Structure formats: structure tokens, C-alpha cells
């Protein structure tokens, strides 16, 4: 199983949005928690990543912050308490006239229903990475393209923005794994990892705790106990969430009948799938399929509530900045990755 490809296909269920944010003399801003995943990329100036509980983390141009599952955080010009930062605005604000001394890209996949993929929720809530742009020059190119793409209304942004965000997310996760191993986040237990891969490779199979424990090479009791301790939920509850995530993706990406999708993700009937889907996502599969993807620039004034749902985080101090010739100038003398506010369990999963 290609784990990162599975993550990208799942997160793409959300609505992609992006902005270049510029400021001059601002103390910073606080980004509220949201359902989804997002990325900040510092383009000019320096700042601090602020969270509720962890120590502030310094950021410089080129640094990337991954909000793996939408945790509240802030970007500040100096270390301070998160509560002291003003909240990010919820509507487009024209950039202040004159020069600016801080600029960053802000992009996200926002979910109107459900939550971020379980893989991302098993990562630390916030991850700060100083990429090695010499070893990965393609990432610099992607940042340049994304910055240009979101700097103004352009034809085709609804197609290019998700594609660029997908690629940047893949590169960020690859570099995270270069530093922290290539296994499943939150587990170094080979038995649990084997069971997870079995579920992800074949969610349609009639799995039971007995069959999963056999795949893990453990007794039923030992497997159930270790799985819950590592993943934060019982194995069958994890399987239900995985199947529904896969079903949501198939609803958005294919025209397959509901009964066929139900069988592909392990449900005997479309009625059983529909009931479980409604409990997890809050709406029926058919309604979910009809709900269009929204890009922030495509939402009219009459849909102010939808703007908040799509990207309250990104709609502040929108600038028309473009990279200088040759791209933004990022330092290449550092490479590090810092997990912030680690959260390797998720106790908020919906009941099956």
C-alpha cells in the first residue's frame, strides 16, 4: 500500500483554498481550530509558531508548518501567549498600502463534514519543517507556483490549487518521514502495523478482531489491547472510520452506484453503508455526493456562511504578491522538523 497516496486521495474530499498573506507591523494572528488540514509557508520575514501548550518555535523564510488536523495555533512576530494574538479575519481584507515586512502562504483542505484522515490525525497536531531545498529543488518550484496561483483571480485555479496543494503536502510528509521513519505514525509495533496495512489494502474484506489478530501474529486479547493503546480506539471502530473515509472519496471521485461503493468498502448493502455514513458525516451519501467542492474565490457574497466554512483561516490581508525573479529566497543551510503539541491518539471519532 502506498500510504501517502491514500492520504492525499482521502484529504482531497475537502475544499481547497489558499492565500498569500502580507502584513507590516502586525503582532501576528491566531488561527482557530477547523476540520481539515493546512499548510503555512513563510516567504519573507521571521515569526514564531505559537500553540496553547508548547514552547514557541522560531520560523524563517522557507519554513513550512503543517497543521495535520486543524489544531488552533498562531503566527506571531515575537513569543507570546496564543490568547494574546488577534483572531484571523473571516472575510477578505485588502492589503495595507505601502511596503510589508512579513509574507506567507496559507493553504488548506477544509471539510464541511467529517474530519481529517486518520493518518494525519495520528501525527503531531502541528509540525514545523525547515526543508532542504538543495536536496529537494522541486519543492521550491511548487512553492513558487502555489504563490503565483493564489495571488490573484486566474482561470483554472479550481483545478490547479488542489493539485499544487497535493504535491506540497506529499513533499512535506516525505521529509517528515525522512526524519521520523517510514512506518505508520504513532506506532513502531510491527504487529499493529501489519494489521493496519491489511485493513487499508483490503477494507472490503469481512474483517473481525480474530482475523486481524491473525494478520498481526498476536492473540486476540493481546491484539485488541495493543491496538487500542497505540491507535486510541478499538480495531473495529478504526476499521469503520477507514471504510467511511474511503466511501466518501469514492462518492466524490466516481459515479459508481451507491450499492457498488458500499460493497467496495465492506458493507453488504447500501442501506447499511448509508446509515453508518450518516452517523459519521452527518448527512446522507447522496447529499454528500451532490455537495460541490468550493474554492474560496468562487464563493459569492450571498454565501458568506460558506466562506467561513471553506476558509476562515486564509481570508485575511490578502495580497497580490508574486515571487521575485527566480523565486523566493529561502535559506538552504538548515534542515529540521519539529513536532508541536503531539497528539498520537484521537478520542473524538464518531461511534460506529
- State the share of residues found in helices, binned by percent: 25-40%
End-to-end span in angstroms? 25 Å
> How many distinct helices?
12
* Class of secondary structure makeup: alpha+beta
Order of helices and strands: HEEEEEEEEHEHHHHHHHHHHE
CATH class of the largest domain equals Mainly Beta
CATH superfamily of the largest domain: Regulatory protein AraC
% residues in beta strands: 15-25%
When the domains are counted, the total is 2
Kindly state the number of beta strands.
Answer: 10
What topology, given as strand order, has the largest sheet? 1-8-3-6-9-10
What is the topological layout?
Elements: H1 3-11, E1 15-23, E2 28-31, E3 36-44, E4 47-50, E5 57-59, E6 64-67, E7 73-76, E8 102-110, H2 118-121, E9 126-130, H3 137-149, H4 157-180, H5 190-201, H6 209-216, H7 220-231, H8 235-253, H9 258-264, H10 270-281, H11 285-290, H12 304-311, E10 336-340
Antiparallel strand pairs: 1-8, 2-7, 3-6, 3-8, 4-5, 4-7, 6-9, 9-10
Helix pairs in contact: 3-4, 5-6, 6-7, 8-10, 9-10
What this model shows, in words?
This protein is an alpha+beta fold and 352 residues long. The chain has 2 domains: 3-183 and 307-340, Jelly Rolls; 190-290, Orthogonal Bundle (Arc Repressor Mutant, subunit A). 38% of the residues lie in helices and 16% in strands. It is built from 12 helices and 10 strands. The strands form 2 sheets. Strands 1-8-3-6-9-10 form a 6-stranded antiparallel sheet. A hairpin with a 6-residue loop joins strand 4 (47-50) and strand 5 (57-59). The radius of gyration is 21 Å and the shape is globular.
Amino acid at each position: 500500500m502506498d500510504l501517502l497516496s491514500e492520504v492525499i486521495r482521502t484529504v482531497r474530499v475537502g475544499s481547497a483554498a489558499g492565500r498569500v498573506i502580507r502584513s507590516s507591523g502586525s503582532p501576528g494572528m491566531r488561527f482557530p481550530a477547523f476540520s481539515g488540514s493546512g499548510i503555512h509557508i513563510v516567504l519573507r520575514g521571521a515569526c514564531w509558531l505559537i500553540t496553547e501548550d508548547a514552547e514557541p518555535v522560531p520560523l524563517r523564510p522557507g519554513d513550512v508548518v503543517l497543521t495535520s488536523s486543524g489544531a488552533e495555533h498562531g503566527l506571531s512576530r515575537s513569543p507570546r501567549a496564543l490568547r494574546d494574538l488577534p483572531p484571523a479575519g473571516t472575510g477578505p481584507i485588502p492589503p495595507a498600502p505601502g511596503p510589508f515586512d512579513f509574507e506567507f502562504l496559507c493553504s488548506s483542505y477544509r471539510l464541511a463534514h467529517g474530519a481529517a484522515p486518520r493518518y494525519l490525525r495520528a501525527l503531531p497536531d502541528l509540525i514545523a519543517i525547515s526543508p532542504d531545498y538543495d536536496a529537494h529543488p522541486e519543492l521550491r518550484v511548487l512553492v513558487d507556483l502555489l504563490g503565483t496561483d493564489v495571488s490573484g483571480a486566474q482561470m483554472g485555479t479550481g483545478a490547479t490549487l488542489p493539485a499544487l496543494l497535493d504535491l506540497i503536502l506529499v513533499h512535506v510528509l516525505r521529509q517528515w518521514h525522512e526524519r521520523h521513519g517510514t512506518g505508520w505514525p504513532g506506532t513502531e509495533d510491527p504487529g499493529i502495523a501489519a494489521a493496519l496495512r491489511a485493513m487499508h489494502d483490503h477494507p472490503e474484506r469481512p474483517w473481525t478482531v480474530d482475523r486481524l489478530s491473525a494478520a498481526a501474529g498476536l492473540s486476540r486479547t493481546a491484539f485488541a489491547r495493543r491496538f487500542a493503546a497505540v491507535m486510541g480506539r478499538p480495531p473495529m471502530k478504526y476499521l469503520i472510520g477507514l471504510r467511511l473515509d474511503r466511501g466518501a472519496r469514492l462518492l466524490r471521485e466516481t459515479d459508481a452506484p451507491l450499492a457498488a461503493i458500499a460493497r467496495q468498502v465492506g458493507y453488504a448493502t447500501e442501506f447499511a453503508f448509508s446509515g453508518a455514513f450518516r452517523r459519521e458525516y452527518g448527512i446522507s451519501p447522496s447529499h454528500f455526493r451532490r455537495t460541490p467542492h468550493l474554492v474560496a474565490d468562487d464563493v459569492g457574497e450571498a454565501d458568506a456562511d460558506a466562506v467561513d466554512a471553506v476558509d476562515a483561516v486564509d481570508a485575511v490581508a490578502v495580497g497580490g504578491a508574486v515571487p521575485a525573479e527566480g523565486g523566493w529566497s529561502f535559506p538552504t543551510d538548515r534542515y529540521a522538523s519539529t513536532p508541536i503539541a503531539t497528539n498520537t491518539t484521537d478520542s473524538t471519532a464518531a461511534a460506529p
